[in-house]
Design brief:
- The protein has 523 residues and is an alpha+beta fold.
- The chain has three domains: 237 residues, Beta-lactamase (3-Layer(aba) Sandwich), CATH 3.40.710.10; 110 residues, DD-peptidase/beta-lactamase superfamily (Beta-lactamase), CATH 3.40.710.10; 105 residues, Lipocalin (Beta Barrel), CATH 2.40.128.
- It has 14 helices and 21 strands.
- Strand 20 and strand 21 form a beta hairpin.
- Helix 2 packs across helix 6.
């Protein structure tokens, strides 16, 4: 097994490939080797963990996990938390409820709490423009960011290109130079406020606004104002703190550059992301994230006013996934209805996941039922469905129904056909209907010799999957107020519909296209 123990630089990462959803066919290192991390909840036998333990061990065996941790919430409180497996893939040390894992994008809700705190009688308002606090103008789109609002960063409608590469520098002070880079080099994919499009850059810019308006670095502010009040004592952004600890889980990835297809062990110093801290930078334990999940479910007026907590967990913008009631709040996915293997459960869910090389985190809460689960694993983009279902046990609380999502109607494909373009990123996407299927031609990929499958896979109304370069990309058609298709949206491409294009427009293919991360798995 290849072990990486030096920080990777952006330059060295120029050939980073996509995170893969495939797992090697191997069993974990003694998944029963765990210490007793169970929370003393005072509920006695209120939670029977028999089925859950079997589900965890089955998921670990299938996915080749050597470390996992799970917390279960009932009545809005963590009633059970435990670690499974070992800290190192070779069998060293037992994982427990306080073991640190990278939690990646679950960090966004911590940043959202901080921003909302400052909007509650602090130094900013959610409707403030970014330019009310700092200079911000993207060279690729002069004037278009003048009215960009803070709330658009938090609900992912700012339109800024997503950036996910690690960095060789670590510690406080890295966010400001990164935002300078954003302004000089990154494209704006869509007009601010027009549509949801998930982007880590949104949250990094929010973190920089927090630094400017409070006069403090992001990390110490979060430590003092979010983690401390919530009792999250095992959550940190500091690499040295994690590396010197004897209780963190090493990750495993099969897509490390130069070692694709083999297991590469990821330790605390393999890569740094301090420039991306507000969007994806924290380490935490399952017990700590359980405390964060409790806050999502019920709030805490010593941390954030009840009114702003309610705003945080409410639907702020539709994700336009073609499913019923799938929205985003501030740093949180918000939806009505949960899809499990045995049906659709009509219950409000507040959730978020996080994926980085060697780590995956899944947090699902159903506030109206008081039910929730936190799962941490030491591989990326593998969804432990058995564990999630056993921990939630939703059949004990609500009866499943048929999904309310309407079926895909191929008769609508003709109105989606046409040319969509972006002036900076990739140029034209040209859609046509062939044999009752929607197909796409992408001249920029053709010019660069990047393989893709022209025929798209329909998933939900106006939502499709595109296979390219060994990865799967989401493509969503965004309609205008009159219901006519106006844009096609992907995480790294947004094209506006044009009429009568005379010749295909070819523009640079973004680096992320070659290292795309698959869509986050979700319920």
């Amino acid at each position: 097994m290849n072990t990486v123990s030096v920080r990777a630089s952006v330059r060295a990462m120029s050939s980073v490939v996509a995170l893969s959803a495939c797992a090697p066919d191997k069993a974990p290192t003694d998944p029963t080797d765990r210490d007793s991390g169970t929370v003393d909840s005072g509920l006695g036998d209120a939670f029977d963990d028999t089925a859950l333990r079997a589900a965890i061990e089955a998921d670990m065996a299938e996915f080749g996990l050597t470390a996992a941790a799970v917390a279960v919430l009932r009545d809005g409180k963590t009633v059970w938390a435990e670690g499974f497996g070992t800290l190192t893939p070779d069998g060293g040390g037992a994982v427990d409820a306080d073991t640190r894992f990278r939690v990646a994008s679950v960090t966004k809700s911590m940043t959202a709490i901080a921003m909302l705190q400052q909007s509650d009688g602090g130094c900013l308002s959610l409707t403030d423009r970014i330019t009310d606090h700092m200079r911000f103008e993207m060279a690729s789109a002069p004037g278009m960011t003048d009215d960009m609002q803070i709330r658009q960063l938090l609900n992912h409608t700012a339109g800024i290109y997503d950036y996910v590469l690690p960095d060789p520098y670590d510690g406080d002070g890295q966010i400001e130079p990164f935002i300078n880079y954003v302004q000089a080099e990154l494209p704006l994919l869509a007009p601010p406020g027009r549509m949801f499009n998930y982007s880590n850059t949104n949250y990094v810019l929010a973190g920089r606004v927090l630094e400017v308006c409070t006069g403090d670095y992001y990390r110490p502010y979060i430590d003092r104002s979010v983690l401390g009040p919530l009792g999250m004592t095992r959550t940190t952004f500091d690499t040295e703190t994690v590396a010197s600890d004897d209780n963190y889980a090493m990750g495993i990835t099969t897509v490390w550059p130069g070692a694709e297809g083999t297991d590469t062990v990821i330790d605390a110093e393999t890569y740094a992301a301090s420039h991306l801290w507000p969007g994806m930078g924290s380490w935490s334990s399952v017990r700590d994230i359980g405390r964060l999940a409790e806050f999502w479910m019920a709030g805490d007026d010593t941390v954030l006013s009840d009114a702003l907590h309610a705003e945080m967990v409410a639907a702020q913008v539709s994700r336009e996934t073609g499913e019923a009631d799938v929205d985003y709040g501030y740093g949180l996915d918000v939806r009505t209805g949960v899809n499990l293997s045995d049906g659709h459960y009509p219950a409000r869910m507040v959730s978020h996941g996080g994926q980085l090389w060697g780590y995956g985190t899944f947090v699902y809460t159903l506030p109206d039922l008081g039910v929730g689960v936190v799962v941490m694993i030491n591989r990326e983009y593998l969804f432990p469905m058995r564990t999630v279902e056993a921990a939630l046990d939703l059949g004990s609380f609500v009866e499943p129904t048929e999904s309310p999502t309407p079926p895909v109607d191929p008769a609508t494909f003709a109105e989606l056909a046409g040319t969509y373009t972006h002036d900076v990123v990739m140029g034209d996407f040209i859609f046509s209907v062939v044999d009752d299927n929607l197909e796409v031609s992408i001249p920029s990929l053709d010019a660069d010799g990047v393989p893709y499958t022209p025929r798209l896979t329909a998933v939900h109304p106006d939502n499709f999957k595109l296979e390219s370069n060994g990865q799967v990309y989401d493509l969503t058609f965004i309609r205008d107020a009159e219901g006519k298709p106006e844009y096609v949206r992907g995480r790294w491409y947004v094209g506006k519909r044009v009429e009568g294009a005379l010749a295909p427009q070819v523009r640079p293919v973004p680096e992320a296209w070659f290292q795309a991360w698959p869509s986050r798995p979700g319920l």
